Structure formats: structure tokens, C-alpha cells
UniProtKB/TrEMBL annotation, chain A:
The chain crosses the membrane at residues 142-162, 194-213, 225-252, 264-285. GO terms for molecular function: transmembrane transporter activity. One of its GO terms (biological process) is amino acid transport. It comes from the Bacteria. InterPro entries: ABC_transp_permease, BCAA_transport_permease. Belongs to the binding-protein-dependent transport system permease family. LivHM subfamily. It comes from Aminobacter aganoensis. It is found in: Cell membrane. It is a multi-pass membrane protein. It holds the Pfam family BPD_transp_2. GO terms for cellular component: plasma membrane. This is Branched-chain amino acid transport system permease protein. Keywords: Amino-acid transport, Cell membrane, Membrane, Transmembrane, Transmembrane helix, Transport.
TrEMBL record, chain B:
GO terms for molecular function: branched-chain amino acid transmembrane transporter activity. It holds the Pfam family BPD_transp_2. This is Branched-chain amino acid transport system permease protein. It comes from Aminobacter aganoensis. It is a multi-pass membrane protein.
């Protein structure tokens, strides 16, 4: 592999890992802070892509599509939290699995009623559809770079909010010890709904930005859900830096796996997970005891 | 598990006899439907051995179910009857091997990690059959001739005959029920439920928790494989969806609906879920919307399953004595 191809694959791997991080960070936050395992997370990735397609086609403006998908999902997340998810706090995992399974069926069917079941593609505006010359013969699409930079910006924003703000302090305290945080009178429960809504909206944003690169199809959330779970298992539940490491690892392994051993690429991710389970069952940055 | 009273024994016997003569009384469609319920009920009872009695919420049992189905179709000669005696042990054996590996790895984790890891391994098997050519890819494979049990030239059981097939499914469900019940009455069963209720205490008592859980997990996978074998034989077709986690989740719905602390409960759950699906599909185009809402309502309003539904509708008021309620409340957690 020459250096140009390698650079392109590396850029692809990082871009894939960053998008995966957007989805997985929401999942890991919702579990770490709310204690809720949300299987319906992937369905919002799919919904984000359909919303972006629908808004872009309706308004003719791609930016509206992306921002609209994010905003709508955020509102949907707030509503879902106050109607359903709130009732799951403190319930056993089995109830959480079943309720989110029910949510998947409902959201999927609503998507079918609103947007149909066809495969769609999102057109890119002209200023994003060019490509940059990397070497004399190799080009890299501008849009993929924009996706990477956007995801990176969001990732930095997440870290800054969690590390540097008051809300982030509450979130960290809640992730550390829920009962103690409540007992100290910290307004932790009012932060919950925003954590859930932001998690959902991040998944939708990931789906929206990926829509022009991949196609938009009904089952696209399923694969992403499983991969995000693998990311969370790799990084450690509730750990955002862990999710970042896990997501980039998977991005690298999947992308280079497809280059070097295409038949086994689909399995490699799970082999990595099995190895981490043997060496460190609570994940790379997870707490020792679960 | 308490021993059954004589009255319950008689009631059980009557139920099995009634189920056995069902084919003589109803049209073919219902016999097939009943066989489907029994197969899914076997899967749900098997899953409940892990979920309800082992405290292990697994999301990969559909993968075991589908794997055994694929094993039957792949091992069957194309235009000849596959032998039941050969293909069934093969299918269940393959499931056991895979379940051992998955179990050893995922039982290193607890609680929500276990759910995620089993989900991931289950989907790995799904993608293995979906993306590679070993199982015909996303189109699936056909089983043209159904398995038979034959000695020499005499055919004892032909699974191609709907009534025979129904009776075999009935035997599988009854056998699964008996096996799990029996298992729970042994010291092994006590060890399994003790590990579920308090792992540290169980360890302190010297119970080899990991080994006990692994055995229960593998046995539950083997029984799920038995169900998957029968399902492939019934429909003569396997597709990757058979391994997908949506089926695992559906089986969990059956388990919760029937009650996680009853061995036969999931069988009742299978009857309700399968019947509901059939009715909804018939009357409503967007049936999954209604089905999803029912699942959500089940979790929020009736976490104890059919028992709670009966109480909410006022049907089972007799059963709602304070002592029982307390017991159920404990069971939900």
C-alpha cells in the first residue's frame, strides 16, 4: 500500500470512528447517568438520516436538513423522556430492554408511515461536493473532511461541557454515584431529560451527516446500534473518553480490515471485543467493579 | 420448586391429552399454528432458564435458535429425507459448541454488560449468515424434504406430516418443561437461583457460580436449538432473520408476559404473543405500531405479565391475596 492510499484509508477510518463516537457517546451517557439501557438508540440514527433527507429535499437546503434533524430529534427525545423513559429509572434491565424494543417497533412503523420504506439518497450542495487533491492521482472528498471536522468539534464540545461547566459537574457526579448525588441535594434529576435528549439528538446528527455518504434505508440503525454497544463494551460503560477510544479503534480495525482481509472484516470487530472481555471485562476505561 | 399436588398432576395430564387430540378436532391451519406456538414456547421456556432462573438477560438466543435451523438445512441431503437421528444431534451439538464459546466470554461480565455482549455476539452470527455465502446470504436456504425418523425401511416419524409434526413439537415443549422443572428441583437448580439472588453470598457458600451459570446458559441454548431445528423443519426454510435480535427480544416479551418465575409461563406468553401477532396482522396494516405500543404498555402497566393483566382487568381477583402480591412484587425486581 503506498502512502497516498494509506492516508486516504486512515482519513476514512478516523471519519468512521468519529461518527461512531457521536452515536456511542449518547448511548454510554444515557446508561452511565440515567442507568437506562436504550436499545432504541440506533433507530434514532436511522430517523436522523430520514429527517435530513426529507428536510433537504423539502427546503433545498442541506444545512437546514442537518440542523433540523438534530433539533427535531432533541425535542422528540425530551418528549420520550417525560412520557416513557422517566418511568424506567431504577427499574430492572429486562424492563428497559423490552420498553426500548417496543419503542423501536413504534418509531420504525411511524417512519414507514411518514417517509415510506424506500432507499433514499441526500444530494450534497455544490460547495461540499468537490474533492481535494491529496497526491497527483488521489483525491479526497471535501464532504468527508467536513464530517470529520464537524464530529470532532461536537466531540470537543461534549468534553468541554462535561469537564468545564456546572451542568457537566452534575453529570459527572451523577455518573459516579447516583444516590449520593441525590442525597446531597444536587439538581440531578432535572438534568436527566436533557442528557437523554442530547444523546438521542447526537445519534440523529450522526445519521444526518452520514446520509449523503451512505444511503438512507430503514435498517441502517440496527448495524450502528450493535457497533455502538461494542464501542461501549470496549471503552467501559459511562465513560465518554472510553467511547472515543473504542470508536476510533473500531474505525481503524473495520477500515483496514476491509483492505487487508475483506472476508473477515465483519468478524474482526467482535474478535477485538472478545479479547477485551478476556483481558479487561469492564472495558478499557471502565470501573473495576460493575 | 415445590412438588406438584395430585390435583395439578391430573390437570396437567388432562391438558396434555387435550393437546394431543387437538388435531382430530380443529382444521389444519390451527394445528400448524399450535405447532408454531409450541416451538416458540419451547424457545421462550429455554430462554427463561437463563433469564428468570439464572438472572442472565440474554439477547442472543435467537442466534442459537437460527444456528440449529441452519445446521439442519446445511446437513440435509438436497433431495432425500434427512435422518432425524443424525441431524438433530448435529444441530443441537453445533449450538452447544457455539454457546460454550459465547458463554465463557460473556459470563465474564454482569448485568447490562452481559446484555450488550450477548447482543453483539448474536449479531455476529447474524452477519456471518447474512454477509457470507455459507448460508445462502440474505436470501436464506430451502429445506426441500423434511426430516424422518426411520429404522431400516420403516418410517416411524415423518416430520413432513403436519399432525406428526405437531405431536413432536408437543413432545419437545413438554420435555423442555419437564427437564427445566426437574433441573430446578435439584441442588444445581438451587445453586443457579442462589447465584441469581445474591452472587457474593453464593460464592461465599462455595457455589462455583461461573460454572453453574455456564451450564445453565449452554443447556438453555441447546433447548433453543431444539426449537430452532423444529422451526426450520416446519417452514422448510431458513433466513438470517431467524438469528436476528428482534426474535430474541420477542422471546423476551413472551418470557415477561408469561412470568419469569414460572417454568410454563413463557409457553402461555408464546401463545398470547403469537396469537396477538396473527390477529393484528389480519386487521391492521401498521400492526407493528400497535404491537410496539402493547409491549410498552406491558412494561409500564403490567410488569408481572399475564398475572398483572388478569388483576388489572379484574379477572384474577381471587389470586390477589396480600401474601401473593408481596411475592409477586419481589419477583418483579
Amino acid at each position: 500500500m503506498d502512502i497516498g492510499t494509506f492516508a486516504i484509508q486512515l482519513l476514512n477510518a478516523v471519519q468512521y470512528g468519529l461518527v461512531l463516537f457521536l452515536v456511542a457517546s449518547g448511548l454510554t451517557l444515557v446508561f452511565g447517568i440515567l442507568g437506562v439501557i436504550n436499545l432504541a438508540h440506533g433507530v434514532f440514527y436511522m430517523l436522523g438520516a430520514y429527517l435530513a433527507w426529507w428536510l433537504t429535499v423539502a427546503t433545498g437546503n442541506f444545512a437546514v436538513g442537518i440542523l433540523g434533524a438534530f433539533a427535531i430529534s432533541f425535542v422528540v427525545g425530551l418528549a420520550l423522556e417525560s412520557v416513557f423513559i422517566r418511568r424506567l429509572y431504577g427499574r430492572d434491565h429486562l424492563s428497559q430492554v423490552l420498553l426500548s424494543f417496543g419503542l423501536i417497533l413504534v418509531v420504525d412503523e411511524l417512519r414507514q408511515m411518514l417517509f415510506g420504506r424506500d432507499v433514499q439518497s441526500v444530494p450534497l450542495p455544490e460547495w461540499l461536493s468537490g474533492s481535494l487533491p491529496l497526491t497527483d492521482v488521489l483525491n479526497y472528498p471535501v464532504y468527508r473532511l467536513v464530517v470529520s471536522l464537524l464530529c470532532l468539534a461536537v466531540a470537543v464540545a461534549i468534553f468541554m461541557v462535561i469537564r468545564r461547566t456546572r451542568i457537566g459537574m452534575v453529570v459527572r457526579a451523577g455518573a459516579e454515584n447516583r444516590e449520593m448525588t441525590r442525597a446531597l441535594g444536587i439538581p440531578f434529576d432535572s438534568v436527566n431529560r436533557y442528557v437523554f435528549a442530547v444523546g438521542i439528538a447526537l445519534a440523529a446528527l450522526a445519521g444526518a451527516v452520514i446520509a449523503p455518504i451512505s444511503t438512507v434505508f430503514p435498517g441502517m440503525g440496527d448495524g450502528m446500534l450493535i457497533l455502538s454497544f461494542v464501542v461501549v463494551v470496549l471503552g467501559g460503560i459511562g465513560s465518554v473518553p472510553g467511547a472515543a477510544i473504542g470508536a476510533l479503534l473500531i474505525g481503524l480495525i473495520d477500515t483496514f480490515g476491509k483492505v487487508f482481509m475483506p472476508e473477515l472484516a465483519g468478524i474482526l470487530v467482535y474478535v477485538l471485543m472478545a479479547v477485551v472481555l478476556v483481558v479487561r471485562p469492564t472495558g478499557i476505561l471502565g470501573k473495576r467493579e460493575v | 420448586m415445590q412438588p406438584l399436588s395430585t390435583r395439578t398432576h391430573i390437570a396437567l395430564l388432562a391438558a396434555v391429552v387435550a393437546a394431543a387430540i387437538l388435531p382430530a378436532l380443529v382444521p389444519d391451519y390451527y394445528v400448524q399454528f399450535a405447532a408454531k406456538v409450541l416451538i416458540l414456547g419451547t424457545l421462550a421456556m429455554a430462554l427463561n432458564l437463563a433469564v428468570g432462573f439464572g438472572g442472565l438477560v440474554s439477547l442472543c438466543h435467537a442466534a442459537f435458535f437460527g444456528l440449529a435451523g441452519y445446521a439442519l438445512v446445511l446437513a440435509a441431503p438436497e433431495y432425500d429425507e434427512p435422518s432425524l437421528l443424525l441431524t438433530l444431534p448435529l444441530a443441537v451439538g453445533a449450538t452447544v459448541l457455539v454457546a460454550l464459546v459465547v458463554g465463557v466470554l460473556s459470563l465474564r461480565t454482569r448485568g447490562v454488560y452481559f446484555i450488550m455482549v450477548t447482543l453483539a455476539f448474536g449479531e455476529m452470527l447474524f452477519f456471518l449468515f447474512h454477509d457470507t455465502p455459507i448460508g445462502g446470504g440474505s436470501d436464506g436456504l430451502f429445506l426441500y424434504v423434511k426430516p424422518v425418523l426411520a429404522f431400516g425401511e420403516t418410517i416411524l416419524l415423518d416430520l413432513g406430516n403436519p399432525v406428526t409434526f405437531y405431536l413432536v413439537s408437543l413432545a419437545a415443549a413438554a420435555g423442555t418443561w419437564w427437564l427445566i422443572r426437574h433441573l430446578l428441583s435439584t441442588p444445581f437448580g438451587d445453586a443457579l437461583t442462589a447465584a441469581r439472588d445474591n452472587e457474593r453470598r453464593a460464592l461465599a457458600l462455595g457455589i462455583p457460580v461461573f460454572r453453574v451459570r455456564l451450564i445453565a446458559f449452554v443447556l438453555s441454548a441447546a433447548l433453543a436449538g431444539l426449537a430452532g431445528y423444529l422451526s426450520a423443519a416446519q417452514f422448510g426454510f431458513v433466513a438470517p432473520q431467524m438469528l436476528g435480535w428482534h426474535l430474541s427480544a420477542t422471546a423476551l416479551v413472551m418470557v415477561v408476559l408469561g412470568g419469569t418465575r414460572r417454568v410454563a409461563g413463557p409457553l402461555a406468553g408464546a401463545l398470547v404473543v403469537t396469537g396477538l401477532e396473527e390477529v393484528l396482522k389480519y386487521f391492521i396494516d401498521d400492526w407493528k405500531l400497535v404491537y410496539g405500543l402493547i409491549v410498552i404498555a406491558l412494561v409500564l402497566l403490567a410488569p408481572g405479565g399475564l398475572q398483572d393483566v388478569a388483576r388489572l382487568t379484574g379477572l384474577g381477583r381471587r389470586a390477589g391475596t396480600p401474601a401473593l402480591k408481596l411475592k409477586e412484587a419481589n419477583n418483579v425486581g
